[in-house]
Amino acid sequence: MGVARAPSRQRLFWTVIAVATPLAVVGSLAAGRYQVPFLNVLGILGSKLVGIEDVFPSTEVSVVELVRLPRVLAAMLAGAGLAIAGAALQGVFRNPLVGPQIIGVSSGAGFGGALAILLFGSAWATVGFAFVFGLLAILIVYLLSRMESQAPILLLVLAGVVTSAFFSALISLVKYVADPDNKLPAIVYWLMGSLASIGWVDVLILALPVTLGGLLIWGLRFRINVLSFGDEDARALGVHVERTRWMILVAVALISAAVVAVGGIIGWIGLVIPHFARALVGPSHDALLPASAVLGALYLLLIDDIARTATAAEIPLGILTALIGAPVFAFLLRRTYLTGWRRD
Amino acid sequence: MSVMGESRRVLPCAFVLAMAGLTGVASADPITFTDQRGKLIELDAPAERVIVLPKPIPSMLIAVDGGIDRLIGLHPAAQAVLMDGLLGKLYPGIAKIDTSIVGEGFIPNVEAMLVAEPDVVIQWASRPEDRIDPMERVGITVVGFGYGSYEIEAEQIEIMGKILGREERAAELLDWHRAVREDIDKVVSGIPQEERTTILFFDRFDSDELAVFGRNEYFFQVPGMRNLAFEAGLDQSTVTIDAEQLLEWDPDVILLNYYDPEADPQKVYDDPRFAGLKAVQNRRVYTTPKLDPGSHEAPLVWSWLATLAYPDKFDLDHRAEIAKQLEAMYGTAPDDGDLDSILQLSLNGDSYRYAERFGR
């Protein structure tokens, strides 16, 4: 990849994004099972901006404002968060196969949420438990992988796999004891991932941790660049390797737990999108992180549009992201192997 | 002498023969029927010890038999549900019935079964290799029950009558089903399709998920209700939809499943997203009564639904009818508090004409 070409290529990328994003948002707001004329959608958004009320039918207004808008924002926040988390993890672990699911956060948060549905059945408990257990999973990974005051990368990934497997078993246990008439369908549905019942409260629950985690990762972007040269080099350049890595992990835990808490386990985005972004804007994290964020946001927005409009029944997001993500990933893997990751 | 001798020998012989004849009537005429997986079942006599694994069926046994004496084992979840409701109050002994005989997924615990010595085990007919074969291998008589349609449920009542030797009681129940159905049909059949009440029945209606019944259930057909989810082409038993789809369908009546611990019409009324729905504006959102629409209790649910769908066309005294039928089934009449609870008065009290039609 020519160094001189990179800026113009990025400029093209951001130009396309700047055009595509508003189109995607308005398009998503106009699409849905309830018929709202396209001009009315624009009108409803516009009338909100200038403060005019009661022009459009109240049901159309509530569809756009209370059903679609929060859902569109949630899909974009979740997609952006997962993709940034994935990009950061792949950078600090210098491993293209790492994502939030690999290091155990998703399973931990998934178990917490499933447990809350089993025990309480209240939305707040689900969110709280998903957070607590997502962070607990990270803590377990930390304790498992910490040896002689530092954590070798391989050990860390293995600890993540072990933790993930452990929490997956606990999820199975919860499903096993759950009442199959009542609790089990709720748990299964939630675990498959869905934004079907997103309201403004959920958007808030999602926005705070995702913004916080995203900003933390963004602040560490140059250190991630240095870390991706390898621990030795990074230390030689004066980066506090351990501390940086754990700050990234906490940020990732924050983001993933928030996403799981609100939308269940939505796989593949953290893994696939950073590869896609890397192929478009190159491996430097000051370009890669924002590119991953917007691509993740647009990707999940599109997937969620399909989930809610394709049929009268909701299609679980986890199924769609995997069905589309796996083949795309296989394709990208072949391409990026030839360009981005083939360095060693 | 010889005659005397003969007769002396003949008399006891005749007695023995007569006795043999009497018992012979039972053994020569065993109870036979085909269960719902198509297997011919033979019983020498009505079963005295019955284990029931499918969750909705123990109450059917109680209704057909008029008591719990012959029910010696049931699913722990069924036990919990019964103890929570009217039957637990009428028959506290249900709490002591053995539940160790079945595990998750209706997999029988064969050794516990052998200890319990059942004459008959009633089990789901699906997945027989895991659920039935292990019992039959050790010589336990298993009756397979299916599910999914009214015909299957009605036949189960008949089979239950045969197992327990109470065929007249089973026939009585089915006659009652027929009578209620015909009464409702007299009113409903005259209503043209496009004027029929449209409904959505939510299996779950909570902050995480909206899941509707997708099939054209028999208990929608009898009261002449149109399930909009079914008409839209869905056919799974429950299907998750989004809020917009509910707004698009805009049914006349919204039903919430009482199995859902969060079912509460007030939540639907208070949700700003749904303020424009017909069912919300007309306050026609109801939690279903604590009666099983897929069981012997079905006619009580049919009548309840018919009254909600066409409040001006039915004038049944529901409380009296429910009290009478439950007494006939379970031996004791529910009191006013029980009826309030069965009919969900506290949840539905503020919905359209509910207190008037179903209150004290």
Structure description:
The complex is a heterodimer of chains A (344) and B (360). Chain A is mainly alpha-helical and 344 residues long. Chain A has helices at 5-30, 38-50, 58-92, 105-119, 123-145, 153-177, 183-192, 200-219, 221-227, 231-236, 241-263, 269-281, 285-309, 317-339. In chain A, helix 1 (5-30) packs parallel to helix 13 and helix 4 (105-119) packs antiparallel against helix 7. Chain A is globular, with a radius of gyration of 21 Å. Chain A starts with a helix and ends in a 5-residue tail after the last helix. The model of chain A has no long low-confidence stretch (mean pLDDT 85). In chain B, strand 3 (50-52), helix 2 and strand 4 (71-74) form a beta-alpha-beta unit. Chain B is an alpha/beta fold. Chain B is globular and about 60 Å long. The relative contact order of chain B is 0.10. In chain B, the strands form 3 sheets. In chain B, strands 7, 8, 9, 10, 11 and 12 form a 6-stranded mixed beta sheet that branches. Chain B has helices at 2-28, 57-65, 76-84, 86-90, 110-116, 128-131, 133-137, 150-164, 167-188, 218-221, 228-231, 243-249, 265-270, 278-281, 298-309, 318-330, 336-342, 345-348, 354-358, and strands at 31-34, 40-43, 50-52, 71-74, 120-124, 142-145, 198-205, 210-213, 226-227, 238-241, 253-256, 285-287. The interface between A and B is medium-sized, with 35 and 35 residues.
The greatest interface between two protein chains, and residues involved on each side, is:
A-B, 35 and 35 residues
What fraction, in percent, of the residue positions of chain B are helical?
40-55%
Compute the number of strand runs of chain B.
12
Distance N to C terminus of chain A: 16 Å
Number of beta strands of chain A: 0
In terms of DSSP E residues, the strand content of chain A is: under 5%
The biggest sheet of chain B, with number of strands, parallel, antiparallel or mixed sense and barrel status, is: 6 strands, mixed
How much helix is in the residues of chain A?
over 70%
Mean pLDDT of chain A: 85
Low-confidence runs of at least 5 consecutive residues of chain B? 1-13, 16-28
Average pLDDT of chain B: 89
Please summarize the sheet with the most strands of chain A. Answer: none
Structural class of chain B: alpha/beta
The SS-based structural class of chain A is mainly alpha
Q: Cα-atom Rg of chain A, whole angstroms?
A: 21 Å
Specify the overall morphology of chain A.
globular
Low-confidence stretches of chain A: none
Classify the beta-strand content of chain B into a percent band.
5-15%
Distance between the termini of chain B: 82 Å
